[in-house]
Amino acid sequence: LVGKSPFGAQSQEMTCRLILKVDLRFPQDIDPLAEELVRSLCKLKPEDRLTASQAKNHAFVQRYHGRPTDPLPAVAGGSASSEAVVSQQSPELVQMQARKDKLQGETLQILQAKSKKESELLEVTERLEVRHSELQTAKTEVLEAQRKLAELKELEAQQMQELQKLNAILAGAEAMPSGSAYPPL
């Protein structure tokens, strides 16, 4: 609609992050119906997205491209079944209709497979986010443990100095002549 992706970002990695979060970005002057259509098509869960038929009937499409047409013209003068219409068509049209039906079936299979893969990707992404959160928590705990260890080592060093001073004082007291109450200065 505007010549660029609604997920566009400075880097491919950031674009991928925006896609996974469905963080759409639109210019301010875009038609609100167009934005609504794109948002409806770009839902995270495939089952929440508009179908092709729903998209063709969206107000934006109707306004700028008119009503969708039926795949086969009606027979003049009445309502005939599609078989009757096909039987009155040229062999080329019948062949084209058969190809179209085959392509629609293949497209449906592809879309179903795509939807399944997107659901799997969404599950993997959610598990990855949980693991990332757990990793961040573990990193925070490690940093806190390292900080406490450094504090304990510093305390241990201070206590060792105090112990050495006390040992020196004790050694000096044992070396004093008996009867002296204080060590010599």
Would you mind describing this structure in some detail?
By secondary structure, the protein is mainly alpha-helical. Helices cover 66% and strands 0% of the residues. It has helices at 12-21, 32-41, 52-56, 59-65, 82-87, 91-175. It is rod-shaped. The N and C termini lie far apart (93 Å).
Task: Profile the largest sheet.
Answer: none
Enumerate the spans where pLDDT stays under 50 for 5 or more consecutive residues.
Answer: 72-82
What series of H and E elements makes up the topology?
HHHHHH
Euclidean distance between termini CA atoms: 93 Å
**Structure classification:** mainly alpha
Overall pLDDT level: 82
Bin the helical content: 55-70%
Which shape, going by the Cα principal axes?
rod-shaped
Number of continuous helical runs: 6
The quaternary state of the protein chains shown equals single chain
User: C-alpha Rg, in Å?
Assistant: 38 Å
Report the β-strand fraction as a percent range: under 5%
Secondary-structure map:
Layout: H1 12-21, H2 32-41, H3 52-56, H4 59-65, H5 82-87, H6 91-175
Note the main attributes of this structure.
185 residues; mainly alpha; single chain; 6 helices
Task: Summarize the model shown.
The chain has six helices and no strands. By secondary structure, the chain is mostly helical.
